[in-house]
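stage 2 :: seqdesign
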């Protein structure tokens, strides 16, 4: 079947329908905000336990990574993402999900060639670019004095 670009566009529009963009934006905003509120509550709680601000921030990061990975492992994170859309991409929980999801998907291939190797399929480029950017930034800072 040969179609022009215009005919293909009309075909896609008929099949996909309209996206409720307002609803999606609101759900993303509320969910992302809720994740950030949980992070702030954790920071306040760790502060109340006597941790200094820097140590509390590290503990919050570890806790949010754990929560994101745990929710991915039990299959709940995908349900939340289906409901909330982009709101679940809050960096730390989204990164935890991006690391854990491929690992779980390929666990049938074994621990090394499945779980461990596939863990970095999504997150690997992010880690490489982050490390590269930090090295470049460090070099520029060292040259600047």
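stage 2 :: out
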């Amino acid at each position: 079947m040969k179609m022009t670009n215009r005919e293909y566009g009309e075909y896609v529009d008929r099949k996909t329908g309209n996206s409720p963009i307002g609803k999606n934006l609101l759900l993303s905003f509320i969910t992302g905000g809720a994740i950030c509120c949980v992070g702030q509550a954790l920071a306040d709680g760790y502060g109340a336990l006597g941790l200094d601000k820097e140590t509390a921030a590290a503990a919050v990061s570890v806790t949010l990574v754990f929560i994101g990975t745990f929710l991915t492992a039990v299959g709940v994170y995908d349900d939340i993402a289906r409901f909330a859309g982009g709101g679940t991409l809050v960096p730390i929980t989204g990164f935890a999900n991006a690391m854990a999801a491929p690992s779980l998907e390929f666990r049938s291939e074994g621990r090394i060639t499945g779980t461990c190797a596939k863990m970095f399929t999504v997150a690997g480029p992010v880690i490489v670019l982050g490390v590269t950017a930090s090295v470049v930034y460090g070099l520029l800072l060292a040259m600047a004095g």
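stage 3 :: structure notes
- Residues 22-144 form one domain.
- The chain has one domain: 22-144.
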